[in-house]
Design brief:
119 residues, alpha+beta, 2,3-Dihydroxybiphenyl 1,2-Dioxygenase, domain 1, four-stranded mixed β-sheet, 2 helices, 6 strands, 24% strand, globular, lyase activity, VOC_core, Putative enzyme related to lactoylglutathione lyase
Length: 119
């Protein structure tokens, strides 16, 4: 059956964003050929929310301590696009990729599924 998920980020500066993911976020990767990097991600989960509008997808990176994570990323020169805001479901912020794209981060305040089955 399904054994993984493949997420694609479309970027106006793919080379810079790939370097950021590898060098700043520290994700290991493989070259799938011709410099097309594919990065190993932390454990993941998927949620399905109702909408009255068109179907869409969103990507968020989760962290255990959003203030600490943002401080560490700031020290590495990462721009914080949106400071921490308190949501009903967690603490939300966003950083900027080198291409200018927004990458949301959140610290969940709800049970998470990404670690189910781990000892």
């Amino acid at each position: 059956m399904i054994n993984a998920a493949h997420i694609i980020l479309y970027s106006t500066d793919a080379e810079a964003d790939r370097a950021f993911i590898q060098d700043v976020l520290g994700f290991a990767g493989v070259d799938a050929g011709g410099g097309w990097m594919i990065f190993k991600l932390p454990p993941a989960e998927v949620a399905v929310h109702p909408t009255d509008g068109p179907s869409s997808q969103e990507l968020y990176f989760l962290c255990d301590d959003i203030e600490k994570t943002l401080a560490e990323l700031s020290e590495r020169g990462v721009s914080i696009l949106e400071p921490v805001s308190e949501q009903r479901w967690g603490k939300l912020a966003a950083i900027q990729l080198p291409s200018g794209a927004k990458l949301p981060l959140y610290q969940p305040l709800h049970p998470v599924a990404h670690s189910l089955g781990e000892a």
